[in-house]
Design goal:
It contains seven helices and eight strands. It has a five-stranded mixed beta sheet. A three-stranded antiparallel beta sheet has the order 2-5-4. 29% of the residues are buried. The model has no long low-confidence stretch (mean pLDDT 83).
């Protein structure tokens, strides 16, 4: 299973039967290619979006097999070793039978500064928790599916350091 964060809860269809052009024009994004970006964890999706304005992000589980590593699609992706970004391309969609199941599992609210704390700890300590670990340690998920950090501000760093074996 993979994750995708979206600005709009209607952007991702279930099932995915067609791809879209990226809406951001950064060095690591080719806006001419049809694609959908996924990552193995929510925090990795979040880091792939860092530097953009704070907003609510909708969290999707994406049940795709064998998405393409992002750096194979575009070698300009500088943080792919941290984010483990992968791309669903037309070839990947075709290899998945032309249809990929998705599920909206919640919405994420996080301050830009907290995203930067996470990025700093990941880079300094090489800490990369998996999806189960991140849910246990970092996120509160309420009854409505809203995800927020268990720890706020600089306390985020302490939660991430709990994974470091020193």
């Amino acid at each position: 299973m993979w994750y995708h964060l979206s600005n709009n809860f209607t952007e991702i269809k279930n099932p995915i039967t067609e791809l879209r052009r990226p809406s951001f024009d950064y060095l690591d994004v080719d806006v001419t290619q049809l694609v959908l970006c996924v990552a193995p964890t929510v925090w990795q999706c979040l880091l792939s979006l860092s530097g953009r304005d704070d907003e609510t992000r909708y969290i999707y589980e994406v049940y795709v097999k064998n998405p393409t590593p992002a750096e194979e699609v575009n070698s300009n992706i500088a943080d792919a070793s941290v984010t483990s970004e992968h791309r669903i391309t037309p070839d990947v969609l075709s290899m998945n039978g032309g249809s990929i199941e998705t599920k909206l599992i919640g919405k994420l609210r996080i301050a830009k500064e907290e995203t930067l704390f996470i990025k700093t700890v990941v880079r300094q300590k090489s800490v990369q928790p998996n999806a189960d670990q991140e849910r246990e340690v970092f996120w509160n998920v309420d009854g409505t599916g809203e995800w927020t950090l268990r720890e706020r501000g600089r306390h985020v760093v302490q939660a991430w350091k709990s994974f470091v074996q020193e």
